[in-house]
Predict the structure of Erythromycin esterase family protein.
Amino acid sequence: MRHSHARPRWPWKAFTLAAAGTTVIAVTATPAAQAATPTAGRAATLTPGQAAGQAAAAAQAAALSAGQAAGQAAALTAGQGAAPTAGRAAAPTARAGSSVTGWLRRHAVPLAGIDPAAPLTDLAALRPMVGDASVVGLGESTHGAAEETRLKHRTLRYLVEELGFRSIAWEEDWTVGLEVDDYLRTGKGDVNTLVRKMARTWRTREVADVLRWLRAYNATHEKQVRFVGVECFATGHRAYDAVTRYVAETAPGRKAELARHMWKIRPDTADMGAYVQWYYGVKDKKPYIRHARQAYELVRKVPHDDGDRAYELALQHARQIVSFYEYFDQKNIYQYRDARAAENLRWWRGRTGDRIAYWAASPHTAKASGMTVHAPGQPPLRFDGAGSLLRRWYGEKYRSIGFTFTRGTLAGADGRPARVPAPPRDWADAPFAAVRHAQYAVDLRASRAPAAVRAWLRTPAKMRCVAAYDPAEPEGHYMSGSSPAGWFDVIIHRQQISPPHPIT
């Protein structure tokens, strides 16, 4: 089927946690679009009653009740006296030992720096925090902070070099992930060219440095680190070609039937940004979904032996094609997206047996269900993040590490640097500023902490989460629906941040 790639008029609002090619593709629908968009008939589709319930839950999670706010403010300020000024920590008092800030100061483990190539001895405290986890989420409060990326890079090095992690699952499309994995295993290609194929948020020198290090590690180690993209937002030609090749080799009698489906759905361009824009504008997506599902069923029914890895991989490619077409036909697009991401990660773990580091934004990695993300000019976006599913499946063997910051500079929506102030006093991450370390780690699994600390750890609150930063509304960027310990097992905090260095 030939497609016109004229820019469509579509009602989706960008939420910029991910992008395909030149097009922002992680989106939330306006109410009008949600009412008009057809669904794929999957569990993620909301009935009117479910939508109303979800809206009520989002409203409840979006703000603290008066009682919660008062209780949390008391917990944060116990023994602090006057509020700290911007950029300065509160002075300790006689009662600081029972306050949240006093507890944080005693339990924070200082980290020596953010240089990814520096020795890792300061990260030794992570060993008991990670324990015997099979999967560790590395969640960032913003994609736009160079220092958070560098701290995540150091943490990834520790997981690989000291704890034996051998796969990294990334908030990136499946087929782009295949290209990254090829580079990491073989060294063929140019890393900057590869990074330009990734989602817009990853096109930075800091991310390129992560990939270069992974390649250098693989070049000198027999047991290599693998890379898997767990997203479905830009599934490209490689998946279609793999499915076609597999059927031609194992079931040549079904090749013509598969070709009829592929002709309808295989993108006619390698520019997935353009293709995504076009597919947004298609009013009736059901024919595309139907052909994708029929292609999947054809592959599923190919005769095979139990444990046939070629069959399993071909079926996974076909599943990604289905996911792409269904993804853009959902009322709750993030509910569907994160469910698929978690399933893809679980599939990869079953296939490789590797311990996996999951690199993504904090709303995806956080372990609590009922995530609500807020951004200026956008309706609240409520979904169960991939991390909540991983926690459900793996229990304590899924550990969630959140990377946070106090203040600094981010690129605004217009690309110019914009100042980001410290979070408001009643936000969950506000007390992190009181610790006198430039960066540090703290274990939030504190069952024996003072009552004020336990209240802070467990009380639902807002926490900073920045996609496209709007300096006119610095308090409009946050996530809600749980608490610090509900979302994360460990926090790695940086006091000052700045924008990453783009690769254009």
